[in-house]
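1st attempt posting a full record on here, be nice pls
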Amino acid sequence: MRKMKRQGKKEIKNGRLSLTLLFSCIVFLILLISLGIAILLVYLLAVYAHIPAIEDELRHPMPFLLLMSAVSLIIGVCVTFASSRLPLKPINRLINQMNRLAGGDFTVRLSFGRLTRSHPALAEIIDSFNLMAEQLERTEMLRSDFINDFSHEFKTPIVSISGFARLLKEGNLTEEERNEYIGIIEEESLRLASMATNVLELTRVESQSILTDVTTYNLSEQLRSCVLLLERKWTDKGQEMDLNFEEYDISASEELLKQVWINLLDNAVKFCPEGGTVSVSIEEEREGLSVAISNTGSDIAPEDREAIFNKFYQADKSHAKSGNGIGLAIVKRVVQLHQGAVTVQSGSGRVTFTVWLPRNLGSLSTQVS
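the predicted structure (as tokens):
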């Protein structure tokens, strides 16, 4: 893998070097053409007696050299102006498309002719620009959907709290009704707090590039604690928890990893049917630890398996399950900060999220872009 990465970087470096040499050759060719035209013009003028013979001028070379320089300069400027439009055309087009992209037009794409695209470095520029534009367009669509969905998610509990608070204020309620309404207000308030907390947490981890609170602690005990925190949710649905792991220590950010396990376990419980099973396992793998959290239930469509880690994305388009598409984005970012990897597998009525983390983070660089 490392050898392939080094080879890929070498190819990119060679491609960019060849692009530099190509532009240098174009400039050198323009200079040669300018010089050739100047020499030809001076020669023709000398031959047809428009200027004294070159032999006579060599006795007093200064005027002749000044003339050559002036003619070369004029011709060079003209040739450069006429020919520079061709090599600069792709750059001008790139600048124009970048300006459109900066102006908010995320549908813009960069394309050149077959000859231009045949150069590896220029092809890389085109592909990188188009990939950037596609990602920005997708992010903008997700942002727009998130604003609509999140506004709806916020409005619903607020309306409920307001309505039941008004009923409590009016009075004339039985003790049973009063307790029921208070319970609903409490539940909706917690729902609002959870959504706000997730947004704040995502903002925090996205702006973080260095782990400063790395400690060595018992990962197995942390997972058991997270399962207990969600006990009410999985017991209310009659689900079973299958914990299959021994005791493992890890060097990591205990606070951030707790967010990972809470989000993954909460998703597993949420999408696991009543009476289903949620399984948690830990294995030593590739100088690290691999934590797998799986649940029985509906499979995740192949086209959604990568997208679900994007912020604001929800695979459940019907919004039958509560959520705002932030939890898995937090998971992905926290795992990246730990230089790990998170993957999802789905099939035969089981969904499994696997998180691989280096066991000793202190031996690695902890800065992530």
